[in-house]
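Person: I have long wanted to understand how a fold can be written as tokens. Underneath my words sits a plain record pairing an amino acid chain with its backbone structure tokens. Those tokens are not coordinates but codes from a learned vocabulary of shapes. I should like you to check that the lines agree and flag anything odd. The protein I mean follows directly.
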Amino acid sequence: MNAFDELTNNFSRLPGIGKKSAIRMVNWLLKQDAAYVQKFAQNLGHLQERIKPCSVCGTWTETDPCPICSNPLRDATQICVVEQPQDVPTIESYGEYKGMYHVLGGLLRPLEGIGPAQLSIQPLLARIKNAAEAGKMPVSEIIIATNPTVEGDTTALYLNKMINELNLMQPPKVTRIATGMPVGGDLEYVDKRTLSLSFRGRSEF
């Protein structure tokens, strides 16, 4: 296998990239300036060294804690729970939400062996409990922004149950973003207007 075929196979493993698209990408790179290709390769090589999950919320960041978690102007009484790190910039792009985040790292999928232990659920519960017990401003609302799928709804119901079982004196309100999003849709691809309406129309469990 030559270098062209190896790179084509590498690109074709990316989400949404088929063999033909991968071939076009390699051909495009071969026509570019050598300095650009070298910089591209350098950035790719250092990607996992420079970008890590935030130790607080789990989103991708070069600084720990991430700029959102370390921003004193953010509303620490709200935590928006999302499935994956890429959901954070999606919600940030619509520009209205000013609270904190928590990345689960996936959804409950028992048939695939993904249960509560495989997700960042205990760290979320610890954040809520610690804020209530450490004399800090308690969390007043947990916004569950998982995708409107069977797995997303199951995960949302499970989170609501676990938060209620914390038995806090001032339990946070648990809300779910409205189904202005299409059923089975993906948060990453929803337009800003729909996402904004989904947040405004969120409902309590």
